[in-house]
Structures are given as C-alpha cells and as structure tokens.
C-alpha cells in the first residue's frame, strides 16, 4: 500500500547517461598510475561533474517546486505548507525550513506578491542568503604554509577518501603534502590511506594498528617540520559524537596540533555524509566543541540525497561548507561555492 | 533545545484538556502537528509521516479517554502503539537454509558499515555453533579486503578472498564452492558499497544474487540516514528483493527514523541493530524500543505498568505511614532499593521518565554501582544501627566501611543524606498537616 505512494523518481532515465562516466572513472582508478592524459581529461570534466552531481539535487528540489507552483495559481497557506514539505524532504531540517518559509512569507507580504510563480525566485534568494552568511570563509585555510588539516567525523562518512582526493589535488598544485594515518582503530584504515597516498604519490606517516593516534599525529607534525612540508593532512578514526571518551581523545589530538605546530595555518574539517539527516547538526555541534571545526566537507552528493542538511548546519552553527564530494574518483572533490550551489539547485 | 521530548510537547498541548471526556478534532489536529514534528526531527520520511499521522488522527478522534490518563497520554499511547505496529511485531530471524550452507549477502551504500557487520554477524553465528565463512567481494574500495581479513582474524573466522582483480560474481561463486568443501555452514558475502542509482554496480549485485542464490539478503543502513533512506531502500529492494534490514551506528544519538521509513516502504523487517564498534555489539531488533526512540519520548505507560507490577502496594502504604511518624529506618530504605532494582537498571528506568531524554542522560552518569554500594553499606550495619542510626559512632563507621568495602566518607555521606531526608520528611508532614492537603510521598529518596 505504501509502494503506491512512492512513485518512481523521474531521475532514473537520466542516470543511464551518468553510467558511462562512472565506469570510465572506475577504470582510471584501477590503473594505479594516473597518466597525464587522464588528468587532462578529467580536468575538463570538473565542472561537468559537479553539475552532474548537483543535477540530482537540483532535480530533487526544483522539480517538486515547479510541480507545486504549477498546481497553484495564487499564493495561499496551502502552498506554503507544500513548500515546507519540499524542503523537509530535502533534509533541510524543520527549524531551518520554518525559518525560510517565514522569511519568504514576509517578503511576499512586503512586496505584495500574489502570483505563485514568483515564489521560486524568493525561495532561491532566501537559500542563498543562508549560505552567504558565511561567504568569504568558504575557502580552505591552507595559506600561508605550513598548513595542517585535521579531518574528523563520524564513522563511514568518507574521511579517508576525502583525504586521498585532497592530497592528490594539493600535489597537483605543486605542494609538498604529507599524510598522517591517525585512524589506528578501524581494521585496515591505515592500509586504505596508504593506498590513497600511493595513488596521489605523497608520503605517509603511520604507526601500527591499535597505537596511540595522538602519537601518530605528533610524529606527523615532527616529520612535516623536518621535511619542510607545505601541508600535513591528518586522518582520524571515525567516532560517534556521543562517545565522550572518543571525543576527549579527539580533543587531545587537537591540543597536540595546537601545541606542536603553533605556526601552522590550521583547518579542522568535519566530513559529513550528504545522506545524513538531522543528526548532522548535532554532529557539527559536538565536533565543534571538541576540536573547533572550521569547515565542512559534504560527501556522497552524487547520490539522490539532497544535501539540504547544509542549510541546517550553516544557519544553526555558521560553520561553512568548504568542499563537496561528487564521486568516487580521485578528482571528484570540489570547492564549495555557495553561489553556484544554489544556482545549480534552482537554475533560471 | 533541539530535541524536546514528544511526550512533553504533547502534554503541553493537551494538558489543558484535563478533565474533558473526549478530544475534539481541533485538539487532535494540534497534537498531530507535534507528532509530525517529532517524527520529522527523527528523520522519518515525510510521506511516511503524513500517512502515519492520518492513521493516528482517525484513531484518536472520538476515542474515549481512559479515566486514569490525561488526553495527552492517551494520544501518546496511540502513537506508540501505531508506531510499534508499523515497525513490525515479529522478532525477525535469519532464514537458514534447509540444506547448508546458508548464504547471507550484505549490501548497502558506502560507509553504512557492511564490513564491520560481516564480522559481527559471523561472530554472532559462530557463538551459536555455526561455522561461518566471510567472503570479500569489495574489490573497489582500497584496503576493503584487508579490513575484512583483519575483522575475520579478530573473531577467528576464515575469510575467502581472491584479491581485487577478479569479478565479484566469480569470487562469490568460488567462495560457495570453497565453503561447501570446507564444511562452512554459513557464508557471509560482503559486497562493495554502492549508490543505489549506479546501475552498473546494482547489476553486479543482481548477478551475484543469481549466481549464489542467497537465503538472506540484508540491506545495511546507517541509522543517521535522512529522507533519502526511502529511495535507497526502494532501489535495493526492487533490484534484489531483500529479506531484511540491519540498522548500524545506533549507538549514536540519531533517532533512527530511517528504520520506520524503510519498513514502511519495503515492508521488509529490521533484523539487527549495530550498537557499537566492538564485534560483539550486534543486537536483535526490538520494534517497541525503536518506536520510543524515534519519538524521543519516555515510555510513560510501560513505566507505570512496571511500577505497578513491581511495587508492593501494601508495603508502599506502610512506608508512607512510617514516613509520617518519622520511624523510617535503613531497613525501609533497603526495601525501597530492592523494589527499585526489580524494575530494572536505573538508567533504563530514567529513560522511561518523560522529559528525561537521552541528551540529558548523557551528562548524568547513572551508575547502578552507586546503588550497590549503598546497599552494601546498609547491609554492613547491625539491626540496631539500622533502626537507630544515631548510635553509629566513629568506630562503628570504620567497621561499616570495612564491611562494605567502601570508605568512611561514603558511609558518612549516606548517613548525612539519610538524616536530611528524615528531616525533610518531617517538614513535609508538618506542611501536610498545616495545609490539610493530601500529599503522596511514596519514594522520598529518588527525586
């Protein structure tokens, strides 16, 4: 009975198009050495890929908004309720959704709008405003060198993969990059990072599984100093934010970074899975307390997840999203651009 | 506060209706908005919420309010019942094959926790006397095979792998042969995480399924998943006709509304929940607990039921009289402790109290050991001491501390608390007399 309610998404037909892309990506991943040809190719696809990844987000929100607007002539209470629905379905979160709807209502009143079709641009404006509150801070803090990036997050969000992609990108920019394998807990996490280090052709500092993560980070810092590295990227074990002792451990690592590398530019990156619902807000809150996160990397945006949780996190915590993960390939990491992000969600 | 408990909200909304025999449609509508908000905060899919709310609304309107309950509680009860039934009542088990080996295939998005679950599930089945084999079919993620090998090593279960150059379909097929030859009666196939819209990889899963014909296909889902859980579960179910769902990372503080959404759209049962990073941390799924968790509400009714079942009414009356006459002794205190203990662990009881949500509990380290200590101290007292604590002098304190394995400070603290409680009781009963009001002070020690 429920199945009838859930109509198949229109997206599916288009997905076959993306398929080829994915397969070629897989192939280039399999051959461990990344030839220059490949890089050239994928570079041209950079924007396309982001657009492609965001396409689904856009379709998700935009199509529904269009549907709703088409079915209404005038703006009324019911229309707002339905718009609220659309945002909630996109994981925007109740509090943020209500705030957005209230603001849109105010503007509608202010400008004495009566046509339902005018809603879309107002909504877009509103969403942009939330993201732009923190604009200017959405670049990674990596200048001047030396810089250290501490990557944190709950389990399974894609920390290690994000680090691999970051390392590759920095190396491509001609920077000297060192990785520190701070996830000493999860089985084979160190091997996973080593494999990425190998693909990105950067060095890695690691201890054995089960050793003290703070010590690995410490050693990483010493090595980065001695080898005169531009950027040190530190992996940490995934931890649920309600585990007090694990958060304390993270705080210790954070303090060691501050103490041992005082002159380094610091970035503490929280990795958030785009499929995460409202819990992401809580995650950001608690991680901010433990290690003062300065940015967010939103991963797995190439699925059907809407990533609307960004709005909730930014409006409630004012921590900017800095990176967006849009695929499994080594190239599939983008700088987050609020302007483009909203434009991609609501194209003219 | 982000997560105000639903029970609290409902009681605020409906509290003013106390004494009314019936709920009006408007009252219910207001209450349903709160239910809707609570479910959405818990990440239950919007369409599932809508459907659910309509159902509850239907039941609530015109429903006679039970004498002893407020309308708010009545609605909470209906909500909880409906939610539990939506979650499925049966305790779902693994489908074992008539002819071993039983083949279990795990699938899901990236980072859901499939590889860890392979180890946990293998461990659980091994403890039940099975001989599991883990199969590494994740050839894509770097070091995924190594991870499964390490996990397998930790629980001493063999792992079958053919490296990352072979097709997963061939690996699965070969593993089946290998398992049969080596007398493994359960074969757990770990597959790579994949997006549900990635048709190539979804087809791969279909091919594995056709090749090895699993008895059980489990979809592994992160408890933190938001609205998208529905499309993920639908796609996997359409492609593979899954047999059940495992919800992982439930030891976090996400409410896990995804569980409800998935159950609602696929009709497939939740079979296990992952409750921690250790390989023992896998539990069977309890629909009723999940219902309460999603609502973020104290299970008021079962608390009442539990209390009524476990607390001897006669004893409670006696106690009340004793309190009034101020001859409450340590023996009575001990009785109370026993009754509390019958109700289960303190932390569990506290969870049932409305307004005590997990967020508050986090800062309040409820320690059953404290109760054990108190009990030990009291039990180390002589009869006379228990009846008249004033005779406990320095050397007696030393003896009691030694006898209970605690220290003098703990003994002192308890004595002081006891004295203060008695004093408080005295004031209360004084007040009571003065105001001629019927006060009920059944459990003075637990505020």
TrEMBL record, chain A:
Location of this chain's protein in the cell: Cell membrane; Cytoplasm
Catalytically driven reaction(s): GTP + H2O = GDP + phosphate + H(+)
Disordered: annotated span: 1-38
UniProt binding sites for GTP: 153-160, 235-239, 299-302
PROSITE patterns per the UniProt record, alphabetical: SRP54
Keywords tagged on the record: Cell membrane, Cytoplasm, GTP-binding, Hydrolase, Membrane, Nucleotide-binding, Receptor
Keyword Ion transport in record: no
Entry membrane topology: Peripheral membrane protein
Pfam short name (any one): SRP54
TM annotation in the entry: none
GO CC annotations, alphabetized: cytoplasm; plasma membrane
BP GO annotations: SRP-dependent cotranslational protein targeting to membrane
Protein purpose: Involved in targeting and insertion of nascent membrane proteins into the cytoplasmic membrane. Acts as a receptor for the complex formed by the signal recognition particle (SRP) and the ribosome-nascent chain (RNC).
Family: Belongs to the GTP-binding SRP family. FtsY subfamily.
Subunit structure, interactors included: Part of the signal recognition particle protein translocation system, which is composed of SRP and FtsY.
Name the UniProt record assigns to this protein: Signal recognition particle receptor FtsY
Organism this protein belongs to: Anaeromonas frigoriresistens
Name of the encoding gene: ftsY
UniProtKB/TrEMBL annotation, chain B:
Catalytic activity: GTP + H2O = GDP + phosphate + H(+)
UniProt GO molecular function: 7S RNA binding; GTP binding; GTPase activity
Family: Belongs to the GTP-binding SRP family. SRP54 subfamily.
Taxonomic classification: Bacteria, Bacillati, Bacillota, Tissierellia, Tissierellales
Any Pfam family the entry gives: SRP54_N
UniProt KW Nuclease keyword: no
GO BP annotations, alphabetical order: SRP-dependent cotranslational protein targeting to membrane
Record-given protein name: Signal recognition particle protein
Main location: cytoplasm
Entry's free-text remark on domains: Composed of three domains: the N-terminal N domain, which is responsible for interactions with the ribosome, the central G domain, which binds GTP, and the C-terminal M domain, which binds the RNA and the signal sequence of the RNC.
Localization in the cell: Cytoplasm
Chain positions recorded as GTP binding sites: 108-115, 190-194, 248-251
Gene name per UniProt: ffh
Keywords of this entry: Cytoplasm, GTP-binding, Hydrolase, Nucleotide-binding, Ribonucleoprotein, RNA-binding, Signal recognition particle
């Amino acid at each position: 009975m429920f199945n009838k309610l859930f109509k198949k998404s229109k997206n599916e037909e288009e997905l076959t198009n993306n398929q080829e892309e994915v397969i070629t990506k897989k192939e280039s991943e399999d051959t461990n050495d990344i030839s220059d040809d490949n890089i050239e190719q994928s570079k041209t696809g950079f924007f396309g890929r982001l657009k492609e990844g965001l396409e689904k987000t856009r379709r998700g929100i935009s199509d529904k908004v269009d549907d709703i607007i088409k079915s209404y002539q005038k703006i009324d209470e019911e229309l707002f309720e339905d718009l609220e629905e659309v945002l909630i379905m996109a994981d925007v979160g109740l509090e943020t959704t209500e705030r957005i709807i209230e603001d849109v209502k105010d503007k509608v009143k202010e400008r004495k709008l009566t046509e339902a079709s005018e809603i879309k641009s107002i909504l877009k404006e509103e969403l942009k405003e939330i993201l732009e509150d923190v604009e200017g801070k959405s670049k990674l803090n990596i200048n001047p060198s030396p810089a250290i990036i501490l990557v944190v997050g709950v389990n399974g969000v894609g920390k290690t993969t994000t680090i691999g992609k970051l390392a590759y990108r920095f190396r491509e920019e001609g920077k000297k990059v060192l990785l520190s394998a701070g996830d000493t807990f999860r089985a084979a996490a160190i091997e996973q990072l080593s494999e990425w280090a190998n693909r990105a052709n950067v060095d890695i500092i690691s201890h054995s599984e089960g050793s003290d993560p703070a010590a690995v980070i410490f050693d990483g810092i010493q090595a980065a100093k001695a080898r005169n590295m531009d950027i040190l990227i530190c992996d940490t074990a995934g931890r649920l934010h309600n585990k007090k002792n694990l958060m304390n451990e993270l705080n210790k690592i954070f303090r060691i970074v501050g103490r041992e590398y005082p002159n380094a530019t610091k970035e503490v990156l929280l990795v958030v899975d785009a499929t995460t619902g409202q819990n992401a807000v809580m995650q950001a809150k608690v991680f901010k307390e433990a290690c003062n996160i300065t940015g967010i990397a939103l991963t797995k945006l190439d699925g059907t997840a809407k990533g609307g949780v960004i709005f909730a996190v930014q409006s409630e915590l004012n921590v900017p999203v800095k990176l967006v993960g849009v695929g499994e390939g080594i190239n599939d990491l983008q700088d987050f651009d609020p302007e483009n992000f909203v434009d991609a969600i609501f194209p003219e | 506060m982000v997560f105000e408990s639903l029970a609290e909200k409902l009681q605020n909304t409906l509290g003013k209706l106390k004494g009314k025999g019936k709920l009006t449609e408007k009252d219910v509508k207001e209450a349903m908005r709160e239910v809707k908000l609570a479910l959405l905060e818990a990440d239950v899919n919007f369409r599932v919420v809508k459907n659910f709310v309509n159902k509850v609304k239907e039941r609530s309107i015109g429903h006679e309010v039970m004498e002893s309950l407020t309308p708010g509680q009545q609605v909470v009860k209906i909500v909880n019942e409906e939610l539990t039934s939506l979650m499925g009542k049966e305790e779902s088990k693994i489908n074992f094959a008539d002819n071993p080996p039983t083949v279990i295939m795990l699938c899901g998005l990236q980072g859901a926790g499939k590889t860890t679950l392979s180890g946990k599930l293998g461990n659980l089945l091994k403890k039940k006397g099975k001989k599991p084999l883990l199969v590494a079919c994740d050839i894509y993620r770097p070091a995924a095979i190594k991870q499964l090998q390490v996990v397998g090593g930790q629980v001493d279960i063999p792992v079958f792998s053919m490296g990352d150059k072979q097709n997963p379909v061939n690996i699965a097929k070969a593993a089946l042969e290998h398992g049969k030859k080596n007398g493994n009666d359960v074969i757990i196939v770990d597959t790579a995480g994949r997006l549900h819209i990635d048709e190539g990889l979804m087809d791969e899963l279909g091919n594995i399924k056709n090749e090895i014909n699993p008895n059980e296909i489990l979809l592994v889902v992160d408890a933190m998943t938001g609205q998208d859980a529905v499309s993920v579960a639908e796609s996997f179910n359409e492609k593979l006709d899954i047999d059940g769902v495992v919800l992982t990372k439930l030891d976090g503080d996400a409410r896990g509304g995804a569980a409800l959404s998935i159950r609602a759209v696929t009709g497939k049962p939740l079979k296990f929940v992952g409750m921690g990073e250790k390989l023992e941390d896998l539990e069977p799924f309890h629909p009723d607990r999940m219902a309460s968790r999603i609502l973020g509400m104290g299970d008021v009714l079962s608390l009442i039921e539990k209390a009524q079942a476990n607390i001897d009414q006669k004893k409670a009356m006696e106690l009340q009289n004793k309190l009034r006459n101020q001859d409450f002794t340590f023996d009575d205190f001990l009785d109370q402790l026993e009754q509390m203990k019958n109700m289960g662990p303190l932390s569990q009881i506290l969870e049932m109290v409305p307004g005590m949500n997990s967020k508050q509990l986090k800062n309040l380290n409820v320690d059953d050991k404290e109760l054990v200590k108190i009990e030990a101290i009291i039990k180390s007292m002589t009869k006379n001491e228990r009846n008249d604590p004033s005779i406990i002098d320095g050397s007696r304190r030393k003896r009691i501390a030694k006898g209970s394995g605690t220290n003098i400070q703990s003994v002192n603290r308890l004595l002081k608390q006891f004295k203060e409680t008695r004093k408080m009781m005295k004031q209360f009963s004084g007040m009571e007399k003065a105001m001629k009001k019927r006060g009920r002070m059944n459990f003075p020690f637990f505020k």
